[in-house]
Amino acid sequence: IYYFTGTGNSLAVARKLAEQLHADLRAMKAVVSMDKIETEADCIGLVFPVYNHRIPYIVKRFTERLHDIDKKYVFAICTHGDSPCIALEYLSQLLSARSGRLSLG
Q1: Rounded to the nearest 5°, which phi and psi values hold at 90?
Q2: In sequence order, what are the beta bridge partners of 79?
Q3: How does pLDDT run across 71-94, given as a tens digit for each residue?
Q4: What's the predicted TM-score (pTM) here?
Q5: 58-69, pLDDT tens digit by residue?
Q6: Which of 8, 20, 73, 92 could form a disulfide with 43 if both were Cys (CB 3.0 to 4.6 A apart)?
Q7: Could you give the CA distance from residue 11 to residue 13 in angstroms, rounded to a whole number?
């Protein structure tokens, strides 16, 4: 589970999810500066808040650095006040550009 949090809400969700799924928890901030982000996991979870009806810029940069995701199950959870707006659709487009697919949001 990779997460980005602003005020802590997304971190709380990511922690609970990682606990329930017995998954590793990693901050996007810790790896986003890498040229390539690779994982051997078959499943990648992304947790982040909705910013201005979309995904935060750090999540965009993280997604653009993901490699070998064409056969991985990718899911996302976005925390929001009113509505997720177009955040998940935008994330889906970014993953598609990397030969990946948003399996669930």
Answers
A1: -65, -45
A2: 49
A3: 999 999 999 877 778 899 999 999
A4: 0.94
A5: 999 999 999 999
A6: 73
A7: 5
